[in-house]
Design brief:
alpha+beta; Ribosomal Protein S5, domain 2; Alpha-Beta Plaits; 2 domains; 4-stranded antiparallel β-sheet
Length: 204
Amino acid sequence: MDYFLSPTESQRFDLIIKKSQFITQVCQTKGRAEAKEFIQQVRDQFPDANHHCWAFVAGHPSNVHLWDQSDDGEPKGTAGKPMLNVLQHSDFGETCVVVTRYFGGIKLGAGGLVRAYSQAVQEALSQTQSKQVFPRNNIQLKISYALLGKVEYWLEQSDIEVNNKHFDSDIIFDLAVIPNSWIEQKAALTNLCQGSLTLKNVDE
């Protein structure tokens, strides 16, 4: 798949299971730091809640280094892990989910907790307003000043993101490109500059 889904904004979904209130909040988070910040915001929002269980896939869905979860006081393996499991089997990335629980007085048991937290995340993701995120590679482009005008115009007409420009003896662009589009774009850009350019994949 060329893209994954990510929430358009922070969104909230409520669920009552055997008198316990489960408040699920979903937010786009790029990286661990943003995910942990969002989790703390939810804790601050509901300081009197019994639990704030969470899970995140804070980057591309295939990047296991950006996965994490917590039961936050619920019996081990009954909340964070099932929440993360739902996230892993969704099309979402750059996503953090926090389920805040207010205990209603009826114990759910281990199996009941797993089902409850899984259901909370499944229903929330099914209703989450999302956008398509296309993973990008970082490319460095170096050209002469004589080519600046037509290269900038060409870039403006493309789906390439220009993250930075450095003016030195030559001009260096920091670009973020969509891999599937870049093959043809690279050929077109090389043709536009008649070969007078330097391209470097910064990720390699």
